[in-house]
Structures are given as C-alpha cells and as structure tokens.
Amino acid sequence: MPLYEIDGEGLRRHDAARFAALGLYERNDLQRLLRDDIAVLSPDLLVVAEEFGNWEDSRRRIDLLAVDKAGHLVVIELKRTDDGGHMELQALRYAAMVSAMSFEEVVAAYEAHLAKTRPEDEVDARIELLNWLDVSDGDEAPIVSSDVRIMLVSADFGRELTTAVLWLNRFEGMDVRCVRLIPYQIDGRILLDIQQVIPLPEAADYQIRVGRKVIEQERRSSDNRDWTRYHIVVDGQVLPDENKRRAVRLMLEKLVERGVPAAAIGKVLTPGRFRPIKGEHHTDEEVRAALAEQYEGVDVSRWFTEHAFVEDGTTWVVRKIWGRNTEPTLNTLRDAFPEAGVSFQRAR
C-alpha cells in the first residue's frame, strides 16, 4: 500500500517496505516498541506481562498480555509477515488458557513484569492495577472478565485469517481485532503506519459500548453493590457517563471552571472528602508529597492528586471513594451553586 507525499505541485509515491529488509524483528523490535507504548494500539490497554506462559505442559507464550479499563484480559499476538499466518488460532488457544485467571493472578503476573521492565521503580502492582481499573483498595477484588479480547498485529492479513476473525466476532463475548503495521523508509527515516482494519473504528466504538454494558451486568450479578453511573450536565449539555468517583470529580471540575471558588466548595463538602493543602502544588508528585506531609497517615492513593485545584495559595484535592454518598453529594453541589449551571443525571 503506497504512501503519497505532496511534493511541490505533484505527488511523490513511497512504497511500503518490509520489516525483514529493514532489519526489524518481532520480539526484539516490534514487541519491545509496542510494549513500551501500547497506547498506539489502543489507549485503554495496560501491559501486565510479556512472553507470558504461566501454565503447565506448554512452551508457548503470549507475546503481550494486557488488561483494559473494563477488566478484560487482552491477548496481543505479533507477526511481521504479510499474511499473519495462523495467529488467530494461536491467540484463541492463549485466550482460553488465561480466561480463568483471577485478579490476584493478574497482580502476580504484573509484579513479575514490573520487576523485569521497571526494576528501578518502586511500584505497587496491586495499587497500580486497582487505579487502572478505577477500583478502591478498600473494595473487594475486582472481577476479571472471562471474556478475553484478542488483538492480532501484523504487517498484513490473509483472506483466510480475516474471514475467520469476521466470523468469530459474530459470537457473543468475542472481540478479535486486527491491527496492520505498514513500515515505510523515507529519506533515511523509518515511519510506521498503524491502522485497525477489523473491525472498522466506528464498529469498534459500538462494540466497546456493548461490552461495557455486559461488564456492568456481570458486576451487578456478582454482588449487591451499587454500580450506578452518572452524566454531568453543563448548561443542558449532557457529558459522557462516568462511574461514581469520577462523576463527583468531574462535577467539581466543571464548577471550578465556571467560577465557583474551591474554598466555597470546601465549605459545602466535609474536609474528609475535599481537603485543602497549604501552598500551590501543580504536579501529581508535588500534590502527593504535600498531602502526605500535611495529613499524617493519609492514604494518598485514595485521592485524586493528579486532578488538584489550585487557588489563592491553596491546593484542594478530592477523595476517590464516595459510595452511597455519591448522589447526595451531587445533589448538594448542584443545589449550592445553581448559578453555575452544572447538574447531573443518572445514566440509563
């Protein structure tokens, strides 16, 4: 597939290159590059393992194992060939093998992965995963869905493979995606065109929405906790729905944007959920350090330190955990500052 450059008044054609001719290999190059910047495939992925093969009597290993925001494991298989080989069959076997993994097993895999890739960082794998899934450490362990997503990444895909993927995606619970990597060598530089070809992005967005509903249904059937989501409404404009903690944070953000002083909000909310910190702190690291210093014994992971409000020499932070207080709090904020035009409604 050629790439065209606008060169003066005409088009300059650049033909696609081959990974082998460029000296790029699956594991040492493509896998490493995608592992370190997985968002180029999808922004909702966190890599938890590389070359994963934690099962008996098998030498086969998953190139990359990730988890998405909804709690699905994602098997990512890589090829640099032009037809993808039989990678869909291989990925299906892997998906079946990891489908029974518990949250604690995912934590263990992520701990091992961090020890290899980020040994110098003092990262708590469990806390980082909980934050990724937007679940509090005080809650029960989150549910890892038994529906495993599959992402096939290759220079191109043969007709047999694409036919199989389209057929698989007809079945409930199946989410198989094909992402094409096309390399180009232009003026001594190597460029990479990354395209999701199955399903088309528009169809993928719809599939994500359907999948999220399934996850919510799984959660409701597993316990009696309230998983209600909320839309924040600004001057009649309904924003995308959020879970409870993010809905409260977003409402505070919109109130501040529309001129409501954080100090005024602090008089409405209890200090245990909206806290002032002396001084102006602008980065997540600064806020975390100041919060820990000024409030002895506080668990900084339970506060939105990356979304602080700085005002008149004071930094304000909001707590993540709201539980049954969510809707009463949203009501209080709406009624206290009606002039701001910020309201909310339950998601259907």
Structural class: alpha+beta
Number of helices, where a helix is a run of at least 4 consecutive DSSP H or I residues: 11
Radius of gyration: 23 Å
Shape: globular
Mean model confidence by pLDDT: 85
Tally of extended strands? 14
Widest β-sheet, arrangement of strands: 3-4-5-6-7-8
In the CATH scheme, what's the topology name of the largest domain? Trna Endonuclease, Chain: A, domain 1
Task: Summarize the main sheet.
Answer: 6 strands, mixed
Number of domains: 2
Give the low-pLDDT segments.
none
Please bin the fraction of helical residues: 25-40%
Q: Provide the β-strand percentage band.
A: 25-35%
Tell me, what is the CATH class of the largest domain? Alpha Beta
In N-to-C order, the SSE pattern is EEHHEEEHHHEHEEHEEHHEHEEHE
Under the CATH scheme, the architecture of the largest domain is 3-Layer(aba) Sandwich
- Terminal CA distance reads 44 Å
Protein name: DUF91 domain-containing protein
Organism: Micromonospora sicca
InterPro entries: tRNA_endonuc-like_dom_sf
GO molecular function: nucleic acid binding
